[in-house]
Structure of Tricarboxylic transport membrane protein:
Amino acid sequence: MAAGGGSDLSGRAIASGLESVVGQTISVENLEGGGGAVGYAAFMGDEGDASYLLATETALVNLPLTEDVPFTWRSFTPIMKVGQDSTIMVVPTSASFETCADVVDAARSGQVRVAVSGGVTGNDAIQFGLIEQDQDVEFQRVPYESGGEVIAALLGGHVDVSLTNPSEVMGQLEAGDLKPLCVIAEERYEYPELADIPTTVEQGINVTFSQFRGIIAPGGISDEAKAYWIDASRTYVESDAFKEYMSTNYMQTDPLFGDDFASYLETYEADLKAGLES
């Protein structure tokens, strides 16, 4: 995960919160590359060592479905899902697009340049791909290494459209530099700052996508170690620090722990696989 990105922010927030619970220092290390593949592959080397945790998100599931990687989510021990967030499609305020349906219509009659971070199998690519499948259109994809580069490219006029998490773009939305077209979801955000943004489903685009965030431990840890981190996580989600992290980053709170998190991952994997094969 790259420093300053959503996974980095999530990992540091959770680490800080767990420190207060367990009374120990939790150091954070960033491992970049392959849209998360490098970090997950390296984490396999910590098999059985419960002193390590890894901040995780949807790449844990979509990488094994779309790339030749040596792991699946079952290679690790699910500890806690803190919640999820839905992506917002944004454009410069000066753009003629007012809805996501406008973007789709433009793609039918010409080229629409869309920014894609995280590689050809990252969340951006998957979501644009699902829209292409649902609407029978094709976008011109422009790859970038990070969400920060995507926003810079959008503001600089190098691309027409991008997808982003609310926490990564609220500053530009509030400043009036960018405008939101839709949320890639079935239901709108409840946060007042985002509640007026319509969904893809409202605009006739039958595509939804939520990015979960949480933590995992290495595979092969003891039942006692698993219970230790789950108990610590349950205490963390009751704290003011957790509530502040979720609200500051406009996350939708839905904590799950241990086996319940594993069941969520199994369903998420099946749904994503079905969407990619449709």
